[in-house]
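Let us begin with a simple case.
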Amino acid sequence: MHATIEAFFDPDTGTVSYVVADPATSAAAIIDPVLDFDFKSGRTTTGSADALLAHLREQRLTLQWILETHAHADHLSSARYLQQQAGGRIAIGKNIRRVQAAFKELYNLERTFLPDGSQFDHLFEDGETFAIGRVEAVALLVPGHTPADMAYLLDGAAFVGDTLFMPDVGSARADFPGGDAHALYRSIRRLLALPEATRLYVCHDYPPPGRAPQWQATVAEQRARNIHVRDGIGEQEFVAMRQARDATLELPTLILPSIQVNVRAGALPPAEDNGVSYLKIPLNVLGAPRLARAS
């Protein structure tokens, strides 16, 4: 029996979260879950995460893994909340330590925050195999968007995070700390070297006018039609395009609140002596406003 895949689209952030399950054992993994956040009020809510939990209950699934493709800049992760409610191990690629070190300095995080990945239950090596029930999966390092991006390959499908978008949207930006357009191109070509029938599931969709959100395309479709990196577009051409485009992009709306939660595996910052957690907004450090979107 093949793994089942259920997608959950969050229109507020354009994020797609997935529940992947092994029908033979009822074991499941959740990939890239969202914690709802209202920037104006500073309030977090769990509606998106609760929809994932409801699906687990309805299908009588046991949560084995909570997989992050990277430390997202456009939504807060609900990994820790999901773990508290349903168990499972929170995992990400081992290069999260590089991201943590960069953002610990940016936010001047508390001394007790260690950029060693210990906030996560497991750090994947490139090419490491693991299992969701009896379904074998492989963690692939696909850096470029950030140094820590991972893709998860299983049962003829790959969950590619922000490395690729839908063919008519293209590819992710590569100008975050540690980002590298050359590395991004090579990571994309690694994914596009998979069998042509492999289904690639993206983490975000920012659909052009007139198209409903979508989140899955085959390797063959990406190689034929991706506007940034289809077959015939070489590394230098891609890098020139990506760098020119990134120079026009505004930072994602939620980058400052989201990263300081996501490097903690979805945990909020420690409460201060009044019992309240606070998010930091560093002033006059990041770049000037440009054009909003992460594509």
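The second case is a distinct protein. As before, the sequence precedes its structure tokens.
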Amino acid sequence: MIDLHTHSTFSDGTLTPAALVDRARQAGLTALALTDHDGMMGIDPFLEACGTAGIRGISGVEISVEFGPGTLHMLGLFLDHRNPALDAALIRLRNMRVDRNRLILEKLHKLGIALAWDDVAKFALEDVVGRPHFAMALIEKGFVKDKDEAFGRLLGKGKPAYADRFRLSVAESIALIRQAGGVSVLAHPFTLGYERRRLREYVADLTRQGLQGIEAYYSEHNTDQQKQCLSIAEANGLAVSGGSDFHGAINPDIHLGTGFGHLNVPDSLVDLLHARIVPH
């Protein structure tokens, strides 16, 4: 069993990299990728823990990409996490979150929600504050009952407390991942918000821009969506990836390796993805 999409306290997860690896060991995983949002600060302790646990550790990242209709995240796997160009781009992405966070707090105050910065920041631990940390604070203070309500009523795209931020373009993200020796994978394709035909067309366009893989096995994919992704991968000559998008306690129903209980990412995908690395 493997999981190629997870988050730690260096992003919006609730487990440290070492604790994440220990959870993976207990679950019987043989390979694990850490794909924190817009940062790779947790990779060193993650790889060290994987070595100790006897788990194949894969250095990764999940990059926020500019996309109007919905949400586009690009996974980079097998990365050199010390690559200067990638590191500089990720630092820029994280720094731009600061202004966005200030706007979110201002919007919440205008809505009559008296949330203090310290209420939010305490949940971030090693990470730059993001919307999931606002959600945690809103839950703790009793303004919402859970994460779904926080995003559905306040923090989601188009909602009253939403504020946008700088993102990389598709071409930039793919190029940076390749430059860092990695493999680019379109994460959770159905968050793009496209219907079946448009999704196929768009992934074909991404492939022409250098995309190397697509996340077909995913916690929130139903059988039909999984089949669609596998068909799209075959049509475009893309590698297939999969993962739970595990965050820990903030999404307690999603379990490492198995998602909602039915996720099963084939072990063979690791080597097939690794084979897509373009030598420099």
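Residues 84-110 form the longest helix (27 residues). The two ends are 31 Å apart (CA to CA).
Keep these points in mind for the review questions at the end of the chapter.
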